Fold this sequence. Notes:
- The protein is of the alpha+beta class.
- It is built from ten helices and 26 strands.
- The chain has two domains: about 20-110, SH3 type barrels (Roll), CATH 2.30.30.230; about 120-405, Fumarylacetoacetase-like, C-terminal domain (Fumarylacetoacetate hydrolase, domain 2), CATH 3.90.850.
- It is globular, with a radius of gyration of 21 Å.
Amino acid sequence: MTTASWLDLPSDSPFGVHNLPYGVFTTAGDPRRRIGVAIGDQVLELAGAAHAVGHAEELLELLSAPSLNPLMAAGRQEWTALRAEITRWLTDPALRPLVEPHLTPRADVTLHLPFEVGDYVDFYASEHHASNLGRLFRPGSEPLTPNWKHLPIGYHGRSGTVVVSGTPVVRPQGQRKAPADAAPSFGPSRRLDIEAEVGFVVGAPSALGTAVPLEAFADHVFGVCLVNDWSARDIQAWEYVPLGPFLGKSFATSVSPWVVPLDALATARVAPPARDVEPLPYLDDRDAKEPWGLDITMEVRINGTVVSRPPFAAMYWTAAQQFAHMTVNGASVRPGDLFASGTVSGPDRGTEGALIELTWNGERPATLADGSTRAFVEDGDEVVITATAPGPDGTVIGFGEVAGRVLPARG
Ligand code: MN
């Protein structure tokens, strides 16, 4: 039996008391950025509720910040204690008169980027995606590069262009050169794509020169969001050898406004797929009692039509392995660092997390509800990615959405 909130939410609410994702919001009448958790179709303002219930100055200070960074920097013990407190506020009927005045309908709030993004890293952890992209970008060669099953491949992206859901995305311009072209040309990308990904938000920092082992993952990672890694395939294809993605990716990366605490995903943990190459010891999670595969099911919509349902449980590398790899050379992490999983693609048709795979380079376009077809994303299209995971006792953990509409290139 799970604890019920005095809010009397339906048992299948994606924002029930077992989720409590963190975000930052303003209202029309109050432009101050405030930290809240989503509960049902409302937002609970945390500093106000903590003050009403009578909490210590120290906690109030963390909750009064205009971003999640100070709270995230406080570390796992604080996060767990705060989560227990918020749960108590929302479940103890005696606290209802104190807490209820700090609820606002979600329809009345504007959500902002919930944390100041530090460094941004994007991985490439789906074997299906990496194999598909290998076939499309390097026809005639082995789809997976020789290192792929030995280390989680990633690159450093541009944190300054990470934007919150709802921010329009201007079609990028750049150099494009198809293999048959004699020379590159300049202009708006003709092959603008999406990548449906899961993002991991670092809270507690690590020390420069010190590797963070697999088992310390949950001490450092605060929570999980959704990511759309917008990708201009024509710009990417021409520029990426030999140093990897650059302008084909850096124009925008969208994130969902709610950060789901790692603690809310305890029942979503699953074993990752069997690995057929023995990992080096620092990446070896085969004896871990609880590996960090996560049963998150995503949905990708274009203008309202579901075009794909990518399964995160199919990812070859877990976020814990990615984190261990990212720090194994002694590189430190800071509060607000974001690392994304890489495109989530499953093995089957209709589970691809990018259009280049879903439409196989445009050869089999996706059909939308209005009868139109898409090889890639067109100006005016709105792409929305949502996700859910299993919560305790049959409940659902919702991630909300990451949405973005494409605007024409600005010449
Ligand atoms: Mn990506």
